[in-house]
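[SOLVED] Need 3D model of a two-part complex

Original post:
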Amino acid sequence: MGLLLQQIANGLIIGSTYAVVALGFSLAFTVLRVINFAHPDIFMVGMFAGLVFALPGPWGLLVALAAGMLGAAAVGWALERTVISPLRGRDVLMTLIGTLGVAIMLENGMALIVGPDPVSYPNLVPRQFVDVGPVTLTLRQVVNFAICLMLLALVSFYVRATKFGRATRAIAERPDVAAAFGVDVGLVCQVTIVIASAMAGVAAVSVGALYGSAHAFVGLLYGLKAFTCMLVAGDRYFEGVMVVALGLGIIEALVTGYLSSSLRDAVAFFVLIGVLLFRPNGLFGSYAA
Amino acid sequence: MPGFHYFEPILIFTLLNVTMALGLYITALSGQLSMATAAIAGVGAYASAILTAKWGWPFLSGILFAAVIGAAVGALLALVTLRMRDFILKLTTLAFGEALSVLAFNWEYIGGANSFTGITLYTNWAPCVVAALLALYVAWRFDGSRLGFAARAVRDDPLAAGAMGVSLVQVRVVTFALGSALVGIGGALQAHYLLVISPHELGFFVSLNFIIFLLFGGLQTLWGPVFGATLLTALPELLRFTSQYRLILYGLIIVVVVLVRPEGLLTRTPTGRARRLFGRTLLPERPVGVVPERPADRPLPLGLMQRGAER
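Solution:
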């Protein structure tokens, strides 16, 4: 029982980082109909931006988070202007290839600057353990989880309760009708990508602090997982993506704990095949249907 | 000047990639842009490797078996994805490829995570030339055949094609199987050159390379995939003088081509100088409205052909 709860807690923490990246992915796909494969690498850029500005001291974490957010948002905005915006309206696969080209550039560009090997991340959160009931967590895990949950809550609030958020959902449903009702589609697209990138940047710094290392190719791992979460959930409800990502984290942790760690990465794809066969529009439905 | 020793690997990889890209082209012509190319190549590679290394079969039968099993896997995938919409179909093939990769990862008999080793070296440039020429011939014959037209009709409008008497099941299964047979041959030849098969090579990112070949070169004629595969395989080598920047340049070139030439580099209607050299269309497509005398040669009904020709 102790092991079960411990694994579920670990899974929730991993799942919350998947959720943040998957949500950024899903925002870009729902609103712009672009599969943004550069998104995981914007996450990576945020991680290194946080690393550069990581200061020792009590405010270190906040400064690093802000730096990660700004760095990722800046790259995301530049990407939107140069590549994503011209790709809007094209075949979905072309958007995937185009952004994948950007991803290759970002990854190898970063590997050129920091080297291809993992780099150690500064101690932004002290090493210590926290007991939560029967489960023992590190303070870093708790901080990471808190940051990710806060981001998810903020996005949920943004999409449901602000004017821009409503415009975002309107464009997701019918871009032409939204434009006819006076929504500035181009502006909302820019804002969406910038928000998704900023969110990924913040999460990246907290993940860097969690594992204590940063890697130029960290995006590869998150990319496919986030993509899978988005497909399994369908793109109608952003909250659905969060639920699926948290669930995936838990299932992966349980597989690692009880079966074998080499099967861990398989879980996502077996879930994906099952969902595509029986509910091709995702568990929670899609706009495209 | 480096000698043949230096160029042979580049030549071999280029020819094999051309073979597999043409296989994918045949599959994609009926609207099934498979994202499991690397997985099917991997199935062919594992099959041939097991037969030759563990059971002592000769090289040629290993390759032929790779083609057969590749075709079987392709036909199976086509049947599974028969009723799916375009985007979901691509994703299902993607998930299938990843699942195969994971399966190979956990199967000890074929080496599991440690990769399959102990394969005998058979491949040099000669079989690769044969395979590439075979693929080119098959793709060329396919392009102008009844089946090729039926495939384009199914891609452009499955409903109309069905109404005109084209069997969706037959066209999709046969094109997927035919393309996958070529991909299987390519994968097996590559295994007998690299002498090791790792489960990672079955994954999504390797499959994506072949899709990039197709979209980069252009999907409208069979020369598109040939050109894309040749250029993009050789490009990292040609860019070697830029040493550490070459992968960044590679990414940049892909982005620029996607943005500037969304139809791919080679399209059916050439422009500028190429237009004067090659005429108005690149491929000898049967002229619309000319019905051959022999019923066997007669293409599909005119309505469908005109749709295909407009593309």
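Edit: Chain B touches chain A through 36 residues (CB under 8 Å).
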